[in-house]
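pinging the channel bc i need a second pair of eyes. not urgent but kinda urgent?? the chain im working w is below, pasted from the shared doc
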Amino acid sequence: MSGYPDVRLRRLRRTEAIRRLVAETALSPSELVCPLFVIHGRGVKNEIESMPGIYQFSVDLLTQEARDVAALGIKAVILFGIPESKDDVGSGAYDPDGVVQQAIHVIKESPSDLAVITDVCLCEYTSHGHCGVVADGEVDNDRTLELLARTALSHAEAGADIVAPSAMMDGRVAAIRAALDAAGHETTPIMAYSAKYASAFYGPFRDAAESAPQFGDRRSYQMDPPNAREALREVEQDIAEGADMVMVKPALAYLDVIRRVRDRFDHPLAAYNVSGEYSMVKAAAARGWLDERRTVTEILTAVKRAGADIIITYHAREAAGWLGGKGG
């Protein structure tokens, strides 16, 4: 058996060119999805205090934003809407003239050729901030399904390329698939938030989407963080109901779950590098504690190495610029 000094593994690490030549995992801008928060009004670009560099955009600004994102080599965006008003049943989510529906039209008419993914949930639109209809202090799973299906259908009719149900209601994928197919949208794919955990890492997102629960929390319907085997059951059920793609959310704290899903299923797998993961890096980098570019690249590489095909990340613009040689 040969060993040191004949075998020197450092030979393949000696220069940057050699390291790139033998790299086992490579990131591409085309694998990144850029989240966009859309709001009513004109000329609105509100920076989110807890997410430096991320903004709420009014619909009229999305043509330029889509063009800029596409120029970086990013191929898809995912939309989250902030309505003008909220009610108990989240009617703004399935309003044909709602803010997300308007945003879809604008982006699809832009010269960007981006794929438009839409988050299908009610939390941004309900006065109580929960992801479904509340009855007797609890989220009513089955009454929520019809509203999620209506929301997904309204997105498809507005021109969405992919709908992504995130409410973690049992049966949501089947309800959406049936509604889409019945309305002639058999070719619209579903990207299911299959393993979405009740995570502390969502805090900044709730600032951005103005969707914090007004009472209680979401632990009765989002997954419990200690559970990994349960994630496989969730993914399996969503696939059986018609999901074309599946997702693990968050990404960084759940790399083991991403790997388990990847090893078990062949469906395209997305991972969501969520707001808290983004904001931690931004805060540390602002204080000089971390090299932002190297840290972000390492995190995204880890997510891909774990098995993700698609990475939804608030770092998408910067990371795509770095990967394409357009960043700092």
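so The chain has one domain: 26-323. and The longest strand covers residues 32-39. — does that match what u expected or am i reading it wrong
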